[in-house]
Write a structure and sequence with these properties.
The structure holds two protein chains of two kinds. Chain A is of the alpha/beta class. Chain A has a single domain, classed as Glucose Oxidase, domain 1 (3-Layer(bba) Sandwich). Chain A has four helices and eleven strands. Chain A starts with a strand and ends with a strand. Chain B is 38% helix and 15% strand. The chains are: A alpha/beta, B alpha/beta. Chains A and B meet through helix 1, helix 2 and helix 3 of A and helix 2, helix 3, helix 6, helix 8 and helix 12 of B.
Amino acid sequence: MVETVFPLREVISSRGPLCGELVVELKPIAYLGDIDPNTGYLHGKYEINGRLLVFPNAVGSTVGSYILYALSRGNKSPIAVIVTKVDPITIIGCIISDIPLYTIEPEKLVRLSPYNGKQACIKRGELVIEV
Amino acid sequence: MTDEEEKMYNGEYGVVLQKAIKSLIKVGEILGAERLIKVAHAHVSGVSYFNIGDAGLMFLESIASSGVKFKSFTTANPYAVIQGFRGRRFSKEVLDKQMQIIRFLAIMGAKYFTCAPYYIRPPKRGEHLAWAESNAVLYANSIAGAYTNREGGPLALFEALTGRTYLGGVHLLEGRLPRCKVSVVPPKSYLEASLIGYMAGEMCPDRIPYVNGISSSTDVSMLRAFLAAFGATSGAPMVVMEGITPGYKELLVKSDITEHIVIDEKSLGQEKKALIERGKKMLFILGCPHLSNNEVSEIIKYLLLKLKGKGGCLKNAEKELWLITGPYTKIPSGASQLNRYGVKILFNVCPVVTRLDFLGIDLVVTDSGKAMFYIPKLAKVPVFIMDRWKLLDEFCRC
């Protein structure tokens, strides 16, 4: 059976359901350098503005939190960030930017990757793919 | 919570400190900390205007203008290079905004700007710190045996303002245990140390590694190159280095290592050959992370010897060599003679977080794996990596 529901753990909560296109990246992200805060693009090609951004974990510069903040001030931030492992740079970035933060099991991230670009919603602690 | 912490939490010291301590507690709760602890030294990142932009500038302004001051001893990361390159400079607007950021941090109490805060105030073993800046965090935990999580820039700012951090992560023994083992070839140069660190980080992007193969007599500047490059490709706050990291034996005994990775000479790969094309505006950079006082004098001594009676052709060449360091360095004697050859010692700045393309620079040559990772992404200029002494020879070549 093809999975369409993925359990999440809520780290920084949000009000109401969060729906948007999935952007699934299987490699770690260095916010500073990998995301352009002015355009809201990841690696220069994937738009994350208004999307559900899923990736394993943050690496690189501790300035990364300010990249999340700049995205939110410029109305270019993802609707939610979903990672397999949280870290202080991501957490404080999401807190000051009001970005909901969730974690997902590493093996679920791999199974989620075929849905890259598909519509999904976070409802009651689960990521539900719109089929 | 202590009385003082409770007062901060209840807003008795104003809304800024209230927001700071609430955010700090929230981060601590998420990471499983039970309480806050005092820190001996905070180090803030997010200082270059090119990195944090107008959003970050306004964030700092809103905090600094409330009149709050840092409670702990606080240092800050270097700022963008404001000196320019061969006569090209940034616009007045950019320079003004960079100066504003520096002023906001200075008003709150940051006096020193460097990515090597361990040369301003050497951390002691077992001391609790709240540092941002990955290379500094890795140095503090892995070489000095101090305790600091790898804080995001704004979090370190909140920790500096409250004088507190959360007792979690690498402040506890459990959080310092390695989860993967990396056996490496002993690095023979800065370049090799950088490349090994870069690869080890890619292999352990979210775990503290236990690294063996680096000799305990390895020069500390090579260890710094290794750790800085590791910090670019990994999110881990620490590397347990056999024979080097204080308490490494206990950490190994208690660890639960399931993965063993080997980095041998073959996997180090080929150093990119810097194709020195005539007419290209080239910038040679040493000092990512910031050079120590000794490294600066060593390099200047080498250059003075190398350029003695020669180097006339360099005077009009389209290249410069920047030696980047912090306020702890004394300008070595003879250094001023090298100015005319395009050699500059720059203090308190960071070219990696500077838009070098705006200064008309076509190409950067450096010995740093960390700079190799960030320069194309942040400074927007192609980069070549070369070992330190070869790089200096290449710079001196006409």
